[in-house]
Amino acid sequence: MPGLPLELLITVAVMGVAVYLFITEKLRVDVVALLVMTALLVLGVLSVPEALSGFSNQATVMVACMFVLSGALKANGALVAIGDVLSRIRWRWLFLLVMLGLAVSVAAFINNTATVAVFLPLVLVATSANGWAPSKFLIPLSYISQTAGVCTLIGTSTNLLVDSMARDATGVGFTIFEFAPLGIIFVGICAVYLLTAGWWLLPDRGTPNPGETEHAGRFIAEIQVPESSPVVGRSPREAVPDSIDDVELLEVLRKGSPVHGTDVEIQAGDKLLLRGDWPKIEAARKAMKCKFDRVPTAPERPRPLTEEEANAEKKDAADPRKDERLHVEAMIAPGSHLIGRTLYGMRFAHTYRARVQGIHRRQLAIRSPLDRVPLSVGDVLMLDAPADAIDALRADPGMIVLGERAQQRVAPRRAIVSALIMAAAIGVAALGWLPIVASALLGCLALVALRLLTPDEAYESIDWQVILLLAGIIPLGIALQKTGGATLVANLLLDVLGPYGPLATLAAIYLMTSVLTEVMSNNASAVLVVPIALATAESMGVDAKPLLIAVAFAASTSFATPISYQTNTMVYTAGGYRFSDFVRVGMPLNVIFWIAAITLIPRFFPFHP
User: Fold this and answer.
1) pTM of the entire structure?
2) Distance CA 549, CA 594 (A)
3) What does the angle CA 472 – CA 474 – CA 478 come to, to the nearest 5 degrees?
4) Nearest to 509 by CA among 549, 556, 560
């Protein structure tokens, strides 16, 4: 690009690499963001204070505070107390309506990922008890939680990010409830769609059997072949009995490595990877007289056990209920500390007193021993665990227990006080007595001071992946403004759309953000488009707020793919959905929201106030 400043060329190159990495997911989003920040600093585009400004940015601090405030509500049972209403409803239409209403009331103020994490097991239990297909309810849960987040400034991290960037650039931002009138209309549009046309587009992926707690999906299990097994000496194609359908032998593992060849015979001590529905895998294992591999979780040269691990082993050995074992399904949550780690490397059995017997993954691209597979968000682990280990599994923020679950006990006083502290933090900021960051920080300190959360619990409630993503990606927005990149794109937009007025520009800004959000992080797409929106508004001589609202709404409502938003990823696995289900149900809603945004945003936020 001749004639362009070197710093702008560098910024564009860094942005291009970042977008590629975001789309391909070759690296975690927080790692990509930190690489962007480091590259802009090392290459001289940004100064040290500018590169590190994301860590002190109001949006970053505010998002961390909201994680702590919502974490206290979850830890003390306030969200479970609200969601427990669902389990008492026996009419499908009423269940859907109440679920949507409860999700909206929570997700408008609480992180929507936490909202879905609380409601997800409750919805699975209720649908199983009533004989309904979970797939008819979980996509609506994700979509309405996303939409509710645009009702308030604190509803999503994206709203806070857009507000912070606007304040830094223009000195003018948004109040806590400034989004509410327009956001409530969008919530109504989403709810009507999900109750009418969306309901008919939702797939029916089957109804759980009464009392069955197993996940409706295909697992990969690792079983071990003893000397007495009838499959010893057989070829892999002959191993699974003909009487058991829909179970596939993927690999024969010998000394940890796959064995290939036309003349391979199964030997005693081999491990077999089977893929299929869990009941079918159980039946095949019994017919083959094999046993589930214990999935070793310690290195070949075991390190000495820590005091905590040794105490856990002693407790397990002395427990009179140690023979009472349960199958537990636990899903790897977004932002989990388990993501990217292997069972082998983390001593899973010692830490959780549970053995992994199978893994359910949407991609099903597992061809190696289960203990060597890096865990991913949305993976469902089939665990063999003692009854008294379930509470510890349920308390771990990195996992969502889907099966064999008892409702979390609510501590009424602690839950009420936690809710009052959060309400006070929001109210003080809404009345203008303190900035929102100051009131949120005071709320977090009050939670710790009143022992509603321990300091460790407060730190654990923060999704550090989101925090690092924000801190690392915010400098890219600064670089786009500093080098003139945002102005360049804004001028290109004006050349094409200027003759059609600001409404056409708003439509283009919303569409650009929506498309980017479907293939990369919502916060990253907002950082890329906000500087363009600000520069465009300045060049056109119009108020920037309508364009900023378009960015915030488009980035916070991502429906068309299961990988575009964390809540979509969570229900994708739990509901047994296919990728095409999100395209079929979500794409029309994206188009409806686009049309609604073009029509309604200028009415609530005029271009010329």
Assistant:
1) 0.70
2) 12
3) 125
4) 549
